[in-house]
Design goal:
395 residues, alpha/beta, Aspartate Aminotransferase, domain 1, Aspartate Aminotransferase, domain 2, 2 domains, 7-stranded mixed β-sheet, 14 helices, 42% helix, globular
Length: 395
């Protein structure tokens, strides 16, 4: 007998992936340049030249066994030392290599973090709108993901609902700032209030409540927006990072866990991650990619195009009458649809070769996401289709 729960998941495939596949198929019919595909959050700018050079140097100059062999279970020590040093310099922290665990991207980091601080039946809270893959990340660990309803006025945390839902069964809270899909960056005031509530409830319940911080968009923050390093405001924080967006290398699957040194049993949590890897087969990320990113820890791709694209879309959307909270980072924007059912709205948009993602799976029915990590020229050309769509369907 095959595992029913995974078979059942086949009927609930990722809406984002299905729309991306549709866009690809449509592109074969009319030319992909004529499909305004805002479905998939795949970086659209090249990796830094220094990353390319680092990879070439490793291939040409290093012992093949060192770059192609298994890494230690917890990651390459020299890489972890450099990661810790970079975080300390940037955020005035006190990490050592003992607080870092190398992972296959932020997904791998979250998979380890959740298993380190929960047991089956425990609850994990997150905040709408949220990345839909959190459900398999959490639910398949045996823990239960519960979603705090959105504050659609600002997409900051809805504290009224959060305090009601922060029961004794909650062992971890999962935050994502800058946020996918809203593009919102949590303010310092939001994070400090979150920390105060979690500290109070931890004391009341007599057990730690961990803050798991999903941070793949940490480097994509726009002008004038303050981006607070989450671990600075709450001791029991586990940062989950990916280089996918900052270096534009999602296919390389590389990231890390950084356990706040002030966190209770911080070093034990990192060592536990090595044991968790044995159970989920998520161990030993690519040695050569670990070594390459260690050479470019202070580099990013040219991320400025995302702010350019955001401003173009935000101005056009608001001019057309959409309700939209202006993003502070990432490469997503999350407007309110022009009818109650965003699925129907996005289906209609396909008739104009606009590929938009309904907000239902993000925990926000009635909204839709646009991933504007595409060429600026294509963003500008899509405005004609967007205007035609709105004029034809909603005027």
């Amino acid at each position: 007998m095959i595992a029913a729960k995974y078979k059942d998941m086949l009927s609930a495939k990722s809406v984002i992936r299905e729309l991306s596949e549709y866009a690809t198929a449509r592109g074969k019919e009319i030319g992909y340049e004529n499909v305004f595909d805002y479905s998939l959050g795949n970086p659209s700018v090249p990796a830094p030249e220094k990353f390319k050079k680092a990879m070439i140097d490793l291939l040409e100059k290093c012992d093949p066994m060192a770059i192609h062999g298994y890494s230690p279970s917890l990651g390459i020590s020299s890489v972890k030392e450099k990661v810790a040093e970079s975080l300390n310099k940037r955020f005035s922290m006190s990490y050592t290599y003992k607080h870092i665990f190398m992972t296959a991207g932020a997904a791998g980091a979250i998979a380890h973090a959740v298993r380190a601080v929960t047991v089956p039946g425990d609850e994990v809270l997150t905040f709408a709108p949220f990345f839909p893959e959190y459900h398999p990340y959490i639910d398949l660990s045996g823990a239960v993901l519960k979603v705090v309803p959105a504050n659609t006025e600002s997409f900051q945390i809805n504290f009224e609902y959060f305090e009601k839902m922060l029961t004794e069964k909650v062992m971890a809270v999962l935050v994502n700032t800058p946020n996918n899909p809203s593009g919102i960056v949590y303010t310092k005031e939001t994070l400090e209030k979150l920390a105060r509530i979690m500290t109070k409830k931890s004391e009341e319940y007599g057990h730690d409540i961990y803050l798991i911080s999903d941070e793949p968009y940490r480097e994509i923050v726009f002008a004038g927006v303050e981006d607070v390093y989450v671990s600075k405001v709450y001791a029991n924080t586990i940062s989950c990072y990916s280089y996918s967006k900052s270096l534009s290398i999602p296919g390389e699957r590389i990231g890390y866990i950084a356990v706040n040194p002030a966190c209770r049993e911080a070093e034990a949590i990192v060592n536990m991650c090595g044991q968790i890897s044995r159970g989920i087969g998520h161990n030993c990320p690519s040695s050569i990619v670990q070594l390459a990113v260690a050479e470019v820890l202070y580099e990013t791709s040219d991320l400025s195009v995302y702010e350019t694209n955001m401003n173009i879309l935000y101005n056009e959307l608001t001019d057309l009458g959409f309700t939209c909270v202006k993003p502070g980072g990432t490469f997503y924007i999350f407007p309110k649809a022009m009818e109650e059912d965003a699925k129907i709205f996005c289906q209609k948009a396909k008739n104009y070769d606009l590929i938009l993602v309904p907000g239902d799976s993000f925990g926000c029915p009635g909204y839709f996401r646009m991933a504007y990590c595409i060429d600026t020229d294509k963003v500008e050309r899509s405005l004609t289709a967007l205007r035609k769509f709105v004029e034809s369907e909603y005027r």
